[in-house]
């Protein structure tokens, strides 16, 4: 749809009114059409078959069925015309035995001669009755005498009355003599074979769609940080190439993460060694205001170093496991209470979910610590609904203006507001939290809090 909009806007101005109906139809079809690949591919197979069969049925009913029925009606009328001719031009006995025997034995019709009387009133005719239309036209053309026919009802016979000069000729003919009664066999065979072919196509199509579904599930699992070792290239050549490209991409990313983790481990070891030397040297000095300030600087540097390494390392080295989120929130509340921070935590729904426990706990700790810095009251609420784990962290602090909330996630960025003035820290808390959330396929949103401050909403797919 986005490509269609770009093409439409790129058209010259004179062509836009011509392309506008096409764009509107395309948007409507996109809105009401199926979204799954299997359904769309099935429609690509079904729609041509349905259109082709509709055309064949129309042509068959319009040409073959009506033409054959017309020829059969004309044949019956010619036989009736022959009997009318015999009655009017050759003398008959009183019982009309000759003409009746001729009709029953030779022509296969039940014939009787009635006294002259007015013909019955015409009965209501079906709008699409091929028999009535064909017989009426043939009798009018071939015989040209007043007549009455009865083709209505479920009877297997058709009654025809012809008004002669001195009597009424009544004929009963089988319905199968006046129209093509076996035409439904063509329709049955056509729809049956189509149904069989569509069923076979559905089976083959499902097998072709499965590799695409497995590739999509593997990509989704990899985006959520879950293992994808079960993916094996299968299906058509293009799908195999896409699966192999995904596997190679995953391996390159994993190698890059492994190399970065190894490098950071070495950097962390070297920097911690230097900070340990600083602490030992400060421990040998006498306590005075200068050394106390140096100790605070060393502690803050150590804390900042841990933040930098955590941000650079990410959470790729931790395995996904089943975690009790309700218990994790209780631990977060207890640890905050030990640190002198009042946090109220509550959870609803199924507590057991699949995620990286330490990473998510660090994410929530960063959000809660950030809220506790600027507010006196902090509430943490979690719930699992409709396949999404949502955890909100609310505070009653000064909040962040809506136009600057996205900047708060930038690494090393400190907002020049009352929320960040004279506050220690590395400026990585929210950046680390969002990185962890996105590593699970989720996101963190900053919103207005019901408490009057800022709300951080963590949303993860399960």
Classify the beta-strand content into a percent band. Answer: 5-15%
CATH topology of the domain at 319-461: Heat Shock Protein 90
Distance between the termini: 28 Å
Query: Biggest sheet: strands, sense, closure?
Result: 5 strands, mixed
The CATH homologous superfamily of the domain at 319-461 is termed Histidine kinase-like ATPase, C-terminal domain
> What's the CATH architecture of the domain at 319-461?
2-Layer Sandwich
Helical fraction: 55-70%
The largest sheet has its strands arranged as: 6-8-9-11-10
The helix count comes to: 11
Q: Would you identify the regions where 5 or more consecutive residues have pLDDT less than 50? A: 416-422
GO molecular function: ATP binding; phosphorelay sensor kinase activity
Keywords: ATP-binding, Cell inner membrane, Cell membrane, Kinase, Membrane, Nucleotide-binding, Phosphoprotein, Transferase, Transmembrane, Transmembrane helix, Two-component regulatory system
Subcellular location: Cell inner membrane
Main location: membrane
Report on this model:
This protein is of the alpha+beta class and about 450 residues long. Among the domains are: about 1-35, no CATH class; about 60-175, Beta-Lactamase; about 320-460, Histidine kinase-like ATPase, C-terminal domain (Heat Shock Protein 90, 2-Layer Sandwich), CATH 3.30.565. Helix content is about 55%, strand content about 15%. The chain has eleven helices and eleven strands. A five-stranded mixed beta sheet has the order 6-8-9-11-10. A four-stranded antiparallel beta sheet has the order 1-4-3-2. A two-stranded antiparallel sheet has the order 5-7. The relative contact order is 0.06. The model is unreliable at about 415-420 (pLDDT under 50).
């Amino acid at each position: 749809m986005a490509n269609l909009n770009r093409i439409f806007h790129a058209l010259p101005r004179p062509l836009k009114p011509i392309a506008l109906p096409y764009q509107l139809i395309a948007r409507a079809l996109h809105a009401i059409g199926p979204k799954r690949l299997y359904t769309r591919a099935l429609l690509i197979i079904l729609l041509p078959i349905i259109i082709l069969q509709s055309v064949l049925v129309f042509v068959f009913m319009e040409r073959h069925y009506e033409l054959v029925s017309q020829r059969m009606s004309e044949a019956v009328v010619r036989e009736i015309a022959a009997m009318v001719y015999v009655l009017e031009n050759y003398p008959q006995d009183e019982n009309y035995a000759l003409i009746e025997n001729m009709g029953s034995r030779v022509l296969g019709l039940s014939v009787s001669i009635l006294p002259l009387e007015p013909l019955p009133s015409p009965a209501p005719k079906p709008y699409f009755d091929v028999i009535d239309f064909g017989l009426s036209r043939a009798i009018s053309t071939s015989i040209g005498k007043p007549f009455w026919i009865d083709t209505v009802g479920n009877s297997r016979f058709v009654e025809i009355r012809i008004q002669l000069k001195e009597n009424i000729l009544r004929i009963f003919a089988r319905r199968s003599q006046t129209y093509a009664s076996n035409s439904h066999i063509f329709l049955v065979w056509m729809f049956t074979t189509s149904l069989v072919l569509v069923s076979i196509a559905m089976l083959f199509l499902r097998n072709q769609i499965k590799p695409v579904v497995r590739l999509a599930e593997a990509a989704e699992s990899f985006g959520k940080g879950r293992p994808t070792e079960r993916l094996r290239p299968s299906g058509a050549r293009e799908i195999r190439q896409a699966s192999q490209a995904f596997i190679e991409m995953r391996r390159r990313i994993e190698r890059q993460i492994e190399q970065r983790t190894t490098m950071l481990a070495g950097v962390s070891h070297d920097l911690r060694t230097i900070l340990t030397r600083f602490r030992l040297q400060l421990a040998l000095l006498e306590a005075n205001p200068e050394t106390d300030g140096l100790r605070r600087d060393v502690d803050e540097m150590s804390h900042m170093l841990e933040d930098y390494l955590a941000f650079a390392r990410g959470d790729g080295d931790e395995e996904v496991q089943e975690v009790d989120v309700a218990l994790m929130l209780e631990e977060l509340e207890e640890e905050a209470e030990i640190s002198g921070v009042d946090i109220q935590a509550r959870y609803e729904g199924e507590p057991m979910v699949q995620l990286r426990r330490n990473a998510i706990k660090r994410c929530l700790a960063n959000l809660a610590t950030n809220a506790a810095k600027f507010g006196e009251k902090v509430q943490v609420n979690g719930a699992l609904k409709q396949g999404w784990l949502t955890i909100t962290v609310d505070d009653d602090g000064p909040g962040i203006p809506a136009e600057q909330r996205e900047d708060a996630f930038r690494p090393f960025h400190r907002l020049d507001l009352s929320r960040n003035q004279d506050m220690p820290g590395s400026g990585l808390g929210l950046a680390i939290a969002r990185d962890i959330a996105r590593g699970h396929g989720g996101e963190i949103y900053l919103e207005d809090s019901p408490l009057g401050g800022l709300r951080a909403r963590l949303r993860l797919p399960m």
